[in-house]
Write a structure and sequence with these properties.
- The protein is mainly beta.
- The chain has two helices and ten strands, in the order ααββββββββββ.
- A ten-stranded antiparallel β-barrel has the order 1-2-3-4-5-6-7-8-9-10.
- A hairpin with an 8-residue loop joins strand 2 and strand 3.
């Protein structure tokens, strides 16, 4: 059993494939972006990274974007550091995860994300709060269903 699964049981419950929708809103609640998502969360038994996540985003225009997140485990947190973000995730309670990270392409930025997983492990909601120069400037609302 991986260290993450042993010490972060809520994180381990996110293993699998998820589909959903991201809705980005400005501070007045107006939609500024919206797209579909497919995420795969895995805990490889071999290799340098005990956590691996692949995100595929698709817009109605046909535009797509794929982002890979490799995570390491230390101090009961999963740590990320790729071309886009640097940060970590930890557990809050039996349903919730919290993440904080910086966007490397947005100077003086940081984000907080809260994830709630239902008891059946088949539905989750996520909210992001985006900050720049220490002021919240937008939020992201995400609803996902597990497909396997």
């Amino acid at each position: 059993m991986s260290q993450i699964k042993k010490f972060m049981p809520v994180m381990a419950r996110h293993e699998g494939n998820w589909v959903g929708e991201y809705i980005h809103v400005d501070m007045s609640g107006l939609i500024i972006d919206q797209h579909k998502s497919e995420l795969s969360c895995t805990f490889p038994e071999k290799g340098p990274f005990p956590y691996f996540q692949k995100n595929l985003y698709t817009w109605e225009s046909g535009k797509t974007e794929e982002i890979l997140f490799q995570g390491t485990f230390k101090d009961n947190k999963v740590w990320f550091n790729n071309d886009r973000i640097k940060g970590y995730v930890w557990e809050l309670d039996q349903r919730s995860l919290m993440l904080t990270w910086v966007r490397k392409d947005i100077e003086s930025s940081y984000l907080y994300e809260m994830i709630q997983l239902n008891e059946s492990n088949n539905s989750r909601t996520r909210t992001w709060h985006w900050f720049k120069d220490d002021e919240c400037f937008q939020r992201t609302l995400i609803k996902e269903k597990r497909i396997d």
